[in-house]
Write a structure and sequence with these properties.
single chain; alpha+beta; Arc Repressor Mutant, subunit A; 2 domains; six-stranded antiparallel β-sheet
Length: 242
Amino acid sequence: MNQPAPSRRHAIAGDLRDQITKGHLKAGERLPSEARLAAHYAVSTPTLRNALALLQAEGLVEKIHGSGNFVRRPLRRTTYIGGGHAPSAPASTEEVLTTTVRAINRRAHGHLTTLLKVSPRSPLTEFLCLSREGKTPHSLARIYVPRDLAPADAPEGLLTARLSDQRSPLAVVQETVSTRLPTPGEATTLRISPTLAILSITRVATDTAGRVVEAALLALPGDRANAVFITHHTAEGRRAER
């Protein structure tokens, strides 16, 4: 049975994909303008943009506002370890991720009151954490804590330690994992296609006194992140279950 011919947008995406994988278009290289590409493939600009959107969703091309479309450099994949551990360490040949942290005073509202189990307008501190690989945004996290538990400063890389110093020992860490499309703000901040699925993780930490001490909202683009959850089954645990 004959296969149907691919649509123009899929044919264009396939040609550009082939040029990228064969190295004819190199990582970091700017593609010709959308007008030139549309003329080259004899299609309308909307059709050409739909083709580029397919490559953006695959993580092969990124569109930088005001600059154009570029062949995306391969981004290393990080692994989120269930339980709130840090992403996996990079190999020696990989570029280390850097994180910038910005603290903002907020008042609890909407879903934050539910996550943190606080009254509306309760004082919170939001830590906006953006990690980068070189100059390319990699992942985004928003961490909310009650104001009285927020450290006075949050140097890059030391936020988790500072938060731990401020609170009592944790009793429960609940994590909800889903996939969804990015919000317009997330797509702009992370420089990803609005059609690229992200791994969305909501982590809520409760201390031994039953107080919610942290709610973290993580947005990890699907082309550069994995999540692993490990359950340890010990002999002591099996005996306790009997």
